[in-house]
Amino acid sequence: MREVILSCIQPTGEMHLGNYFGAVKNWVDLQSEYDCIYGIVDYHAITMPYDIKKMRTNTWDLVMDLVAVGIKPDNLFIQSLIPEHTELCWIFNCFCSYGQLTRMTQFKDKSQDVESASSDTFISAGLLDYPVLQAADILIYKADCVPVGKDQEQHLELSRDIAQRFNYSVGKEYFILPKTLFTKTPKIRSTADPERKMSKSAGEKHFIGMFSDESRIRKQIRSAVTDTGSDHSEDLSPGVKNLFEILDAIPGSEEISGQLFQAQKEGTLRYSDLKENVSEHLMEMLIPFQEKRKELSANKRNLKDQIKQSSTEIRKRAQQTMFEVKDLLGLMNIKY
Ligand code: AMP
Ligand code: TRP
Fold it and tell me: How many CA atoms lie within 13 A of 315 on its CB side?
C-alpha cells in the first residue's frame, strides 16, 4: 500500500509564494508517488474574525489556485463537506490538555493579533481548539507524512501527542504517528519586512500573490528590503538571504543562483541584478500557472462539481475511521 500524504490550507485569500514554496510545491510533486489527500480547511478559517460574504468565493478561488499549480481535483476535499473531522475533533479534545493548547505559539500570536487589530477583543474557543481539529484532519486519514511549512511544526507535535495518548488509552497502536515533511524552503520571509514570515494576515505588502499582476510582482521584488543595516557584514542580511532562497526554489534556476552567490562572496553582486533575476525566473514559472487559472475560471461549474464529488469519495475514508474509533472507545455506532 502506498503511504498516505495529507496536508491542508485555509481559504483566507490568495495563495502566496510562502504557501507555494513552503508547502504546496511539495504537495504537487508528491502526487506521482503517494496516496495524497489535500484539504481546504474552512472550519479552521472561521476561528478568526472573517467576512461571511467572502467565504465561499475564497474557498472556490483557492480550489482554482491549487488546481492551476498542479493539484489533481480528485485529491482535493473541502473540510465542511466532511463532518467527521469535527466529530473526531470532539473526541480528541478529551485526549488533549487545556494547558497544552494555551502553550501553542500560534494561539498566542493570533490572539495577540485579535487584541491589537481592533477594540473588539473577542477570542473564540475555536482558536484555542484549532490544533485539535488539525490533528483530526491528519489522523482521520491515518496520514504517514504531512508536508507543511516550518510554522506548523508545533501543531504536528501535538498531533503525535494526541495519537499517542489515544493509542495508550485503547491499548492498541491504532493511529500512525505522522511525520512532518519540509521543503528546502520551509520559511519564506516578507520582502517588505524580512524579519517576519511572508503571510496573508500581516497585510497586502507582506505577501507576493501567485496570481497577482506581473507588474505588481516585479514592483514588489524591485522594492524588496535587502539591507537591514545589521552589523554582521560577513553574513547575508535576511532580505538578501530570502531573495536567494526564492531564486533557489524556482525550478531551473540553480545555475544562475550559484553564479550570483559567487558574485556575492566576491563582493561584486549588485542587488538590482539579483532582483532582476528573481523577477525573470519567477515570472517564467508563474505565467503558465496564471494562464491555467484563467482557463479554470472560465469553466468553474465543472470544477465545483468535481470537488463535491471528490469530497464525497474522500469522506468514505473518514467515515471508516470514525466507525473504528467509536468502536474502540465504547461509543455507539450505526452503519449508515
Ligand atoms: P496557511 O496559508 O497559513 O493556511 O498555510 C498553508 C501552508 O503554507 C502551510 O503548510 C504553511 O506552513 C505554509 N506557509 C505559510 N506561510 C509560509 C511561509 N512564509 N513560508 C513557508 N511556508 C509557509
Ligand atoms: N494549520 C495549518 C496552517 O495554518 C492548516 C491546516 C489545518 C493543516 N489542518 C491541517 C495543515 C492538517 C496540515 C495538516 O497552515
Answer: 16
pLDDT at 113: 81
Nearest to 23 by CA among 133, 134, 186, 144: 186
Task: Say if CB 44 and CB 134 are below 8 A apart.
Answer: yes
Q: Is 200 an active-site residue?
A: yes
Distance CA 10, CA 45 (A): 6
User: Given this chain, do its domains 4-185+300-329 and 200-295 carry the same CATH topology?
Assistant: no
**Band of pLDDT at residue 234, cut at 50, 70 and 90:** low
* Residue (of 39, 127, 104, 107) closest to 77 by Cα position: 39
Annotated domain spans of the chain? 4-185+300-329, 200-295
CATH annotation of 4-185+300-329: 3.40.50.620
When computed from its CA atoms, the radius of gyration of the chain, rounded to whole angstroms, is 21
**pLDDT for residue 112:** 86
Please indicate whether residue 197 is annotated as part of the active site. Answer: yes
Angle of CA points 47, 52, 53, to nearest 5°:
155
The x, y and z cell numbers of residue 262, run together, are 559567487
Q: What is the CATH number of domain 200-295?
A: 1.10.240.10
Model confidence over 250-303: pLDDT tens digits? Answer: 999 999 999 999 999 898 999 999 999 999 999 999 999 999 999 999 999 999
- Shortest-distance atom of ligand 1 to CA 200: 2
Q: Given the CA of residue 9, which atom of ligand 1 is nearest to it?
A: 4
